[in-house]
């Protein structure tokens, strides 16, 4: 038994130019496309400019600073970070927050989980969990009085964090994590 | 799951960028344009696989891209508008001895490109060409005067 295939008679369905060559061009569509294309390149250019300025992280626009009203801590961080990409937060302790060279930093769950806290430099002498976060205790920071936190966000979106020296004023910040 | 989303987004973004790069990244590519295409592909790979170098991740990403390509190909069969969006439409570059300058400028095609395509067909001079058409694939079709 012969196998049957679906068939269709030939039709002159491709539009011709000058009534002699079947090209199927569509200049109306093409002109609209060129307009879209021009807008797209402007959009791409704006993206590149924003990227150069740090609008998507790792640049001038991305750097943020915060300071507690009581000057206990000042924080330098990336307001705009990138998913699964390391970034650094520097916490500077004010003189009032250091007692005999010792101090401590409380960080909420947002910093540890949402912003993916990896390491703390210098390494804290102890760190312990409290109901609303983690406390890092530093026995002697010397004159430098600053620590660096390495972060690596594990999901995109707006991530909030809170920091304070126990007994002092709390500061809150937000980091936009780009996908 | 993330790699599947990244692969689909990467595929669609690549489709848009290559489409917007005009018709030159096709059969008329120069060696430098070849390098650009590979460079773009390489950058997309980084975001697609991320730091997960497992076979599961690469297999999922490859299947996602293959499926996207299959879907797009099938969609083209049923919609001329979508085909025009994804692949463009053929453009007449030269018609009855006249350059279509607006088309050529917007498509970034030079007269030399047309002549190069004509030489492949054994055409010695421009006056032997009746029509030159930039095809959706990026190649230039030449219809001679005597045809």
Secondary structure elements and pairings:
The complex is a heterodimer of chains A (179) and B (147).
Chain A: E1 16-17, E2 21-22, H1 27-53, E3 63-67, E4 73-78, E5 80-82, E6 87-93, E7 103-108, H2 109-114, E8 117-121, E9 126-130, E10 133-138, E11 146-151, E12 157-164, E13 170-178
Parallel strand pairs in A: 5-13
Antiparallel strand pairs in A: 1-2, 3-4, 4-6, 6-11, 7-10, 7-12, 8-11, 9-10, 12-13
Chain B: H1 2-20, H2 31-49, H3 55-78, H4 80-87, E1 91-95, E2 98-99, H5 101-106, H6 111-120, E3 129-134, E4 140-144
Antiparallel strand pairs in B: 1-2, 1-3, 3-4
Helix pairs in contact in B: 1-2, 1-3, 3-4
Task: Count up the helices of chain A.
Answer: 2
| SSE series of chain B | HHHHEEHHEE
* Helix share, percent of chain A: 10-25%
Unreliable spans of chain B: none
- Overall, the morphology of chain B is elongated
Strand content of chain A: 35-45%
Question: What spatial order of strands do you see in the largest sheet of chain A?
Answer: 5-13-12-7-10-9
Helix content of chain B: 55-70%
N- and C-termini, Cα separation of chain B: 56 Å
Main pleated sheet of chain B: 4 strands, antiparallel
**Widest sheet, order of strands of chain B:** 2-1-3-4
Order of helices and strands of chain A: EEHEEEEEHEEEEEE
The proportion of residues in beta strands of chain B is 5-15%
Poorly predicted ranges of chain A (pLDDT <50, ≥5 residues)? Answer: none
Number of helices of chain B: 6
Largest sheet of chain A: 6 strands, mixed
Question: Which chain pair has the greatest contact?
Answer: A-B, 16 and 20 residues
How many strand elements of chain A?
13
Radius of gyration of chain B: 19 Å
Report mean pLDDT of chain A, rounded to a whole number.
88
């Amino acid at each position: 038994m012969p196998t049957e295939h679906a068939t269709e008679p030939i039709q002159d369905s491709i539009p011709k130019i000058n009534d002699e060559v079947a090209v199927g061009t569509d200049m109306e569509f093409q002109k609209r496309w060129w307009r879209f294309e021009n807008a797209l390149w402007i959009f791409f250019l704006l993206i590149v400019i924003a990227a150069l300025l740090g609008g998507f992280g790792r640049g001038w626009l991305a750097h943020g600073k915060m300071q507690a009203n009581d000057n206990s801590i000042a924080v330098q961080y990336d307001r705009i970070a990138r998913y699964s990409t390391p970034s650094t937060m520097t916490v500077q302790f004010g003189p009032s927050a250091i007692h005999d060279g010792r101090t401590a930093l409380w960080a909420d769950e947002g910093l540890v989980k949402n912003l993916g806290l990896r390491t703390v430099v210098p390494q804290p002498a102890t760190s312990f969990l409290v109901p609303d976060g983690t406390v890092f205790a530093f026995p002697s920071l010397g004159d430098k009085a600053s620590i660096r936190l390495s972060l690596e966000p594990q999901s995109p979106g707006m991530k909030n964090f809170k920091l304070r020296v126990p007994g002092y004023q709390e500061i809150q910040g937000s980091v936009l994590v780009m996908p | 799951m993330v790699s599947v989303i990244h692969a689909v987004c990467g595929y669609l973004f690549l489709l848009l960028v290559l489409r917007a790069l005009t018709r030159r990244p096709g059969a008329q590519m120069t060696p430098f344009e070849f390098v650009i295409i590979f460079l773009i592909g390489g950058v997309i790979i980084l975001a697609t696989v991320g730091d997960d170098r497992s076979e599961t991740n690469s297999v999922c990403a490859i299947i996602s891209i293959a499926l996207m390509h299959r879907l797009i190909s099938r969609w083209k069969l049923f919609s001329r508008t979508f085909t025009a969006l994804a692949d463009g439409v053929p453009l007449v570059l030269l018609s009855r001895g006249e350059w279509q300058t607006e088309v050529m400028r917007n498509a970034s095609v030079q007269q030399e490109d047309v002549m190069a395509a004509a030489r492949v067909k054994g055409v010695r001079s421009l006056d032997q060409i009746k029509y030159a058409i930039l095809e959706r694939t990026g190649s230039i079709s030449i219809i001679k005067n005597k045809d």
